[in-house]
Structure formats: C-alpha cells, structure tokens
Amino acid sequence: MIIDGERHIAHLDLDTFFVSVECLRNPKLKGKPVLIGGSSDRGVVAACSYEARRFGIHSAMPMKMARRLCDHALIVRGDMEMYSRYSTIVTDIIKDSVPVFEKSSIDEFYIDLTGMDKFFGCSLFTADLKKKVYRESGLPVSYGLASNKLISKVATNEVKPNGQIEIAFGNERNFLAPLSIVKIPGIGKQTAFTLLKMGVETVRVLSEIPIELLQNLLGKNGIDLWRKANGIDDAPVIPFHEQKSISTENTFQADTIDLRFLNTELARMTEKIAFELRRQNRLTGCVTVKLRYSNFETFTRQMSIPYTNSDHVLLKTVRELFMKLYERRMLVRLLGVRFTQMIPGNYQINLFEDTQEMISLYQAIDSVKKRFGEQYILKAGALKLLPTAATQHTQMAPAGLMQS
User: How many Å separate Cα 140 from the centre of its chain?
Assistant: First the structure.
C-alpha cells in the first residue's frame, strides 16, 4: 500500500471553462464581464467570467439580479454541445499523456503521478501538461500538485486563474491553516454556520478541535471534517474508464404494438434513471435505447449528447432513438434505456435556458422522491401503465456492458 508521502496527485481545473470556450469562439469577449445563461429575467447565471465576479455575481444567481449588479455585462446563451466537445478534447489530451487520471467533472481532473518523479519529475511533467492543454485546446488551466486529492484541489482554487502551485509533502497542515473553513470541500452552508457560531473561522482552529468533540457535534461528518482539516486524505484517483453506467429495461408479459403505451414506458424509465443520476450527482453524455421484437430480434441505437441529467432533455433523445429503432409494425417484447459516459456534475450545468421555476421544480420533485419514494410523484406521461407489464430491472454496470 502506498502511503501519503509517496503519492503525487495533481488536480487540473479548466479556468471559467464555459467562458473560456466562448472566448475562443469570440475573442472580443476576453477581459469583459461575461454571463453564460438564459437572457430572460427569469433565467439564471450558469457561469460567469472573473471580471463579472468582481461585481458580486456568481453561478446560479438569478439573471435579473446579475444584470442589476453589472448592467454592462455581456450575456451569452450557453452551448452545452460545444462545451462537451471541448471537454472531450482536453480529456483526450490528458489520456494520451498520463498513466492514470480521474475525470471528476466536465472541467476538472485528478492525475496520479506517483512513481513518475523517478523518471521525469512530477513538477516539470505537470507544468508541461498545463502548457500542452493550452497549446492543443486553447483553454487556460490551473493546477495544484500535492500528496493527496484534497490538498491538490484546495491548492488549485487558491491560484486560479491560470496558476500553478506545488505543496510539498509534510506541509499540508501549514498550507491549510490560514485558510477559511469554507475553503474545505464538503463544508456546506449549514456546517459553516454551526462552526462560525463557535468561533471557528480558520482551518487551523478547526484542526485543533478534538476529533471526539467534532464527532459529537456533527456525527460521522465530524470525523471526516477533522481529517480534512489536518490534511489527511487517502482517497484514490479513480481511473476514468471505470465510470459506471445506469440502465433500466422492461420485459412485457404480453407483447404489444401500442405506441401510446410504449412511449409511456419510455417516459417512466427515463424519468426513473434520470432521477438516479441526479441523486448520485452525475451527468450522462450518451443515451442508448434497446428494443426487442416478439421474434426475439434485438436492436440498439445510441447517441452522444451534451452532458445532462434533466428529464426533459433525456426523454427527447430517448424518443428520437426509439422512433429510429421501431421500423417494423411488429409486436414489441422489451424496451430498455441506458445512460453511459457518466461524470460527476449537477443540474446547474444545463440551465442555459431554464428558469428559476424549472430549477425549483426539479429540486422539489427530487426532494419528494428521496423522502417518500419514486412512485409518489410521476410526470403525467408516465402514469398510464399497461397492467400486464411485468419484469423491470434497474442495474449499475461497468461502461460497455448491458445485461438483459
């Protein structure tokens, strides 16, 4: 087992990714306060430039408020397809350059360089990789190099934009000590409020609190928080090819040609696994639909899409694929829907056209499902089910596998 002192973990973060991509398409945006999102007053800010942040603007802020804070800001409608394409470009650059990497979001990567210091020097290698990403994609990137994922991520955030930093082994606690507790990943508003009421403002103070006290105060999260405050993190870099897929399929007791029912089933299955995506805080970049006729002939079609976990976006793709698949007027025995190319991410990433009401609706729906169960709230299109519909299977499997 490798101990922390032998590890070299780099965290790479594409600076203001959406804005940077837009600047490649329109260089006139560089140096300007730019807001990515819907232009209506009911929309929200999906991303913003550093110039816009100086006015107090941040992502997920209502667009109406952002425009009041900076009335000369330039509003750009988001293009998730283009952002996904650039994310793939950077992913391929990293894949061709390093032995092990984890894609933790559309614009963030962890790289395990452990052992490479004996051959290349991790500092030089990471600096060269940063230059390579910029040279081949045109996108600026910041990175932190440290002994674990926690320190490398916090370090990256401290040197953005377009910065780089290395935290030497043994200096983790000293690096964290003067930082605000809100700089520690995983400390939400509620936890921060609790700690601030106690007078705990810096990581140094947090690290000096006995672990038993934090456990009594915050439960298991208290133990995790104490470890983070002391710079301890043994989480591995999870190889990108090990990302999971999620799928569901339904074999009917009675084969059917009823298109209305088949579309209802597609809506129900899509809604079910889209909720699972959001529950796991993940996005999918590829949708597959499976169809089996009554003669047992089975066909599948898939489509790469901009990363999303939104029901209405995914269902549109699922129905398009189904209509391309269903070419015969023959009874259908089975339908299946599968999401692959999954990465961590949340619903906010898709809000270029959605309103605050849409965000609130998704949050309310998911809250009810988590508390009472999925069956208590369904879209109208998923309610009218065929009584004879029988076996349904929801499964997690390695990408590339599809079980029947």
Answer: 20
Indicate the CATH number of 243-398 among 3.60.10.10, 3.30.70.3270, 3.30.1340.30, 3.30.1490.100.
3.30.1490.100
Distance of CA 136 to the CA centre of its chain: 24
Predicted TM-score (pTM) of the model is 0.76
> What is the topology classification, in CATH, of domain 183-241?
DNA polymerase; domain 1 (1.10.150)
Clarify whether 265 is annotated catalytic.
no
- Render pLDDT for 313-335 as a digit per residue (tens, 0 to 9): 899 999 999 999 998 889 999 99
The torsion angles phi and psi of 325, rounded to 5 degrees, stand at: -80, -40
Query: Sign of torsion, CA 169 232 59 193?
Result: negative
Q: Over 60: is that where the pLDDT of 376 sits? A: no
User: CA of 368: how far to CAs of 57, 119, 269, 325, in Å?
Assistant: 31, 54, 18, 34
The three-state DSSP-derived secondary structure of the chain is CCCHHHCCEEEEEECCHHHHHHHHHCHHHCCCCEEEECCCCCEEEEEECHHHHCCCCCCCCEHHHHHHHCCCCEEECCCHHHHHHHHHHHHHHHHCCCCEEEEEECCEEEEECCCHHHCCCHHHHHHHHHHHHHHHHCCCEEEEEECCHHHHHHHHHHHCCCCEEECCCCCHHHHHCCCEHHHCCCCCHHHHHHHHHCCCCEHHHHHHCCHHHHHHHHCHHHHHHHHHHCCCCCCCCCCHHHCEEEEEEEEEEEEECCHHHHHHHHHHHHHHHHHHHHHCCEEEEEEEEEEEECCCCEEEEEEEEEEECCHHHHHHHHHHHHHHHCCCCCCEEEEEEEEECCEECCHHHHCCCCEHHHHHHHHHHHHHHHHHCHHHCCCHHHCCCCCCEEEEEEEEEECCCCCC
What's 1-170's CATH class?
A: alpha beta
Q: Which of 22, 51, 108, 249 is catalytic?
A: 108
Task: Decide: 139 and 14 in contact? Cβ < 8 Å.
Answer: yes
pLDDT in tens, 12-61: 999 999 999 999 999 999 999 999 987 777 788 989 999 999 999 998 88
What would the two tokens of residue 219 be?
């439960």
